[in-house]
Amino acid sequence: MGVIDVEQKKTIGFVFIDKFADWEFGLLSGAATDWFAARAVALSPVTGPVRSIGGLRLVPDRGIGVAENSDLDAIAVIGSDTWPDEDAPDIAPLLNATLVRGGIVGGICGGTLALARAGIFEGRKHTSNGAGWIESNLGDYAGSSLYQDVPYAVRDAHIISAPGSAPGTFTTNFLEALFPEKAGQVAEMREFVGREYQAA
Protein backbone atom coordinates (compact mmCIF):
# COMPACT_ATOMS: atom_id res chain seq x y z
CA MET A 1 0.00 0.00 0.00
CA GLY A 2 1.45 3.41 -1.01
CA VAL A 3 2.06 6.23 1.42
CA ILE A 4 -0.47 9.03 1.08
CA ASP A 5 1.17 12.46 1.08
CA VAL A 6 -1.02 14.56 3.31
CA GLU A 7 0.02 18.19 3.72
CA GLN A 8 0.48 19.03 7.38
CA LYS A 9 -1.86 21.79 8.53
CA LYS A 10 -0.10 24.91 9.73
CA THR A 11 -1.02 25.88 13.27
CA ILE A 12 -1.53 29.44 14.52
CA GLY A 13 -1.60 30.23 18.21
CA PHE A 14 -3.73 33.23 19.17
CA VAL A 15 -2.67 34.82 22.46
CA PHE A 16 -5.57 36.24 24.48
CA ILE A 17 -5.53 38.04 27.81
CA ASP A 18 -8.40 39.61 29.72
CA LYS A 19 -10.22 42.45 27.91
CA PHE A 20 -9.01 41.28 24.49
CA ALA A 21 -10.31 43.13 21.43
CA ASP A 22 -13.20 41.30 19.75
CA TRP A 23 -12.58 42.80 16.30
CA GLU A 24 -8.86 42.07 15.96
CA PHE A 25 -8.69 38.30 15.45
CA GLY A 26 -11.85 36.99 13.76
CA LEU A 27 -10.88 37.74 10.17
CA LEU A 28 -7.48 36.08 10.62
CA SER A 29 -8.67 33.00 12.51
CA GLY A 30 -11.64 32.50 10.20
CA ALA A 31 -9.74 33.01 6.94
CA ALA A 32 -6.77 30.94 8.06
CA THR A 33 -8.90 27.93 8.95
CA ASP A 34 -11.64 28.16 6.32
CA TRP A 35 -9.71 29.45 3.28
CA PHE A 36 -6.17 28.26 4.00
CA ALA A 37 -6.83 25.01 5.89
CA ALA A 38 -4.81 26.08 8.93
CA ARG A 39 -5.55 25.20 12.55
CA ALA A 40 -6.20 27.87 15.19
CA VAL A 41 -5.59 27.39 18.91
CA ALA A 42 -6.30 29.84 21.72
CA LEU A 43 -3.46 30.52 24.16
CA SER A 44 -3.58 32.37 27.45
CA PRO A 45 -1.36 32.75 30.51
CA VAL A 46 -4.38 32.00 32.71
CA THR A 47 -6.05 28.61 33.03
CA GLY A 48 -9.59 29.91 33.30
CA PRO A 49 -11.70 31.84 30.81
CA VAL A 50 -10.88 35.37 29.67
CA ARG A 51 -13.41 38.00 28.62
CA SER A 52 -13.32 40.26 25.62
CA ILE A 53 -13.90 44.01 25.68
CA GLY A 54 -17.40 43.19 24.47
CA GLY A 55 -17.95 40.76 27.35
CA LEU A 56 -17.66 37.49 25.43
CA ARG A 57 -16.12 34.56 27.32
CA LEU A 58 -13.28 32.56 25.78
CA VAL A 59 -11.77 29.39 27.24
CA PRO A 60 -8.15 28.92 26.08
CA ASP A 61 -6.95 25.62 24.63
CA ARG A 62 -3.55 25.81 26.30
CA GLY A 63 -1.09 28.03 28.14
CA ILE A 64 1.87 30.07 26.90
CA GLY A 65 4.67 27.66 27.78
CA VAL A 66 7.35 27.11 25.16
CA ALA A 67 7.28 23.30 25.33
CA GLU A 68 3.51 22.95 24.99
CA ASN A 69 3.54 25.21 21.93
CA SER A 70 6.45 23.71 20.02
CA ASP A 71 4.04 22.74 17.23
CA LEU A 72 3.10 26.34 16.39
CA ASP A 73 3.99 27.72 12.97
CA ALA A 74 2.84 31.20 13.94
CA ILE A 75 1.64 33.33 16.85
CA ALA A 76 -0.79 36.25 16.72
CA VAL A 77 -0.86 38.41 19.85
CA ILE A 78 -4.29 40.00 20.05
CA GLY A 79 -4.72 43.45 21.55
CA SER A 80 -6.20 44.04 24.97
CA ASP A 81 -6.83 46.97 27.28
CA THR A 82 -4.51 45.26 29.78
CA TRP A 83 -1.33 44.86 27.68
CA PRO A 84 -0.13 48.33 28.79
CA ASP A 85 -0.30 47.30 32.47
CA GLU A 86 3.01 46.90 34.29
CA ASP A 87 2.02 43.39 35.36
CA ALA A 88 1.07 42.29 31.82
CA PRO A 89 2.21 38.72 31.17
CA ASP A 90 5.70 38.11 29.83
CA ILE A 91 5.38 36.01 26.68
CA ALA A 92 8.88 36.80 25.36
CA PRO A 93 10.13 33.19 25.68
CA LEU A 94 7.26 31.89 23.54
CA LEU A 95 7.60 34.62 20.91
CA ASN A 96 11.36 34.27 20.59
CA ALA A 97 11.25 30.46 20.50
CA THR A 98 8.74 30.62 17.65
CA LEU A 99 10.95 33.04 15.71
CA VAL A 100 14.09 30.95 16.26
CA ARG A 101 12.48 27.95 14.60
CA GLY A 102 11.38 30.06 11.62
CA GLY A 103 7.82 30.80 12.69
CA ILE A 104 5.74 33.91 12.13
CA VAL A 105 5.02 36.35 14.97
CA GLY A 106 2.41 39.08 14.76
CA GLY A 107 1.00 41.64 17.14
CA ILE A 108 -1.94 43.98 16.69
CA CYS A 109 -2.84 47.03 18.78
CA GLY A 110 -1.83 46.45 22.41
CA GLY A 111 -0.35 43.11 21.34
CA THR A 112 2.53 45.05 19.80
CA LEU A 113 3.63 45.92 23.34
CA ALA A 114 4.34 42.23 24.00
CA LEU A 115 6.55 42.14 20.89
CA ALA A 116 8.36 45.34 21.92
CA ARG A 117 8.94 43.99 25.43
CA ALA A 118 10.42 40.83 23.91
CA GLY A 119 12.91 42.87 21.84
CA ILE A 120 11.44 41.58 18.60
CA PHE A 121 11.32 45.00 16.92
CA GLU A 122 15.07 45.47 17.16
CA GLY A 123 16.34 45.99 13.61
CA ARG A 124 12.85 45.54 12.15
CA LYS A 125 10.29 47.92 10.69
CA HIS A 126 7.05 47.89 12.63
CA THR A 127 3.99 49.88 13.58
CA SER A 128 1.36 50.18 16.30
CA ASN A 129 -1.29 52.64 17.49
CA GLY A 130 0.43 55.83 16.34
CA ALA A 131 3.79 57.53 16.71
CA GLY A 132 4.99 57.50 20.30
CA TRP A 133 2.30 55.10 21.53
CA ILE A 134 4.67 52.25 22.39
CA GLU A 135 7.05 54.68 24.16
CA SER A 136 4.15 56.18 26.11
CA ASN A 137 3.54 52.73 27.59
CA LEU A 138 7.02 51.22 27.77
CA GLY A 139 9.52 54.03 27.45
CA ASP A 140 12.35 53.61 24.95
CA TYR A 141 12.56 50.15 23.38
CA ALA A 142 14.84 48.30 20.98
CA GLY A 143 14.01 49.20 17.37
CA SER A 144 12.05 52.38 18.12
CA SER A 145 13.85 54.26 15.32
CA LEU A 146 12.31 51.88 12.77
CA TYR A 147 8.72 52.69 13.75
CA GLN A 148 6.47 53.31 10.72
CA ASP A 149 3.67 55.81 11.37
CA VAL A 150 1.10 54.28 8.99
CA PRO A 151 -2.57 53.25 9.37
CA TYR A 152 -2.05 49.71 8.07
CA ALA A 153 -0.06 46.60 9.02
CA VAL A 154 3.68 46.45 8.45
CA ARG A 155 5.52 43.25 7.62
CA ASP A 156 9.27 42.82 8.05
CA ALA A 157 10.18 39.23 7.12
CA HIS A 158 8.52 37.02 9.78
CA ILE A 159 7.25 39.92 11.92
CA ILE A 160 3.85 41.54 11.39
CA SER A 161 2.55 44.49 13.40
CA ALA A 162 -0.59 46.58 13.09
CA PRO A 163 -2.65 49.27 14.78
CA GLY A 164 -5.92 48.11 16.28
CA SER A 165 -7.78 49.83 13.44
CA ALA A 166 -6.19 47.55 10.80
CA PRO A 167 -7.36 43.94 11.28
CA GLY A 168 -7.75 43.57 7.50
CA THR A 169 -4.15 44.29 6.55
CA PHE A 170 -2.95 42.47 9.68
CA THR A 171 -4.73 39.39 8.34
CA THR A 172 -3.48 39.60 4.77
CA ASN A 173 0.12 40.36 5.77
CA PHE A 174 0.07 37.53 8.30
CA LEU A 175 -1.30 35.02 5.80
CA GLU A 176 1.16 36.16 3.14
CA ALA A 177 4.04 35.50 5.53
CA LEU A 178 2.68 32.13 6.66
CA PHE A 179 1.67 30.91 3.19
CA PRO A 180 4.19 32.41 0.71
CA GLU A 181 3.25 29.76 -1.82
CA LYS A 182 -0.33 31.06 -1.80
CA ALA A 183 0.44 34.72 -2.56
CA GLY A 184 -2.14 34.74 -5.34
CA GLN A 185 -4.88 33.54 -3.03
CA VAL A 186 -3.90 36.15 -0.42
CA ALA A 187 -4.00 38.85 -3.11
CA GLU A 188 -7.55 37.77 -4.01
CA MET A 189 -8.50 37.99 -0.35
CA ARG A 190 -6.93 41.46 -0.05
CA GLU A 191 -9.02 42.64 -3.01
CA PHE A 192 -12.13 40.95 -1.61
CA VAL A 193 -11.75 42.60 1.82
CA GLY A 194 -10.91 45.97 0.26
CA ARG A 195 -14.20 46.15 -1.63
CA GLU A 196 -15.94 47.28 1.55
CA TYR A 197 -13.94 50.51 1.50
CA GLN A 198 -14.25 51.32 -2.18
CA ALA A 199 -16.43 54.27 -3.08
CA ALA A 200 -19.90 53.25 -4.28
From TrEMBL:
- Residues in a coiled coil are none
Return the InterPro entries for the record. Class_I_gatase-like, DJ-1/PfpI
Q: Does the keyword Transferase apply?
A: yes
Q: Which Pfam families match?
A: DJ-1_PfpI
Q: Where is the DJ-1/PfpI domain?
A: 12-176
Q: Which GO terms describe its molecular function?
A: transferase activity
The record's keywords, sorted A to Z, are: Glutamine amidotransferase, Transferase
What's the protein name? Glutamine amidotransferase
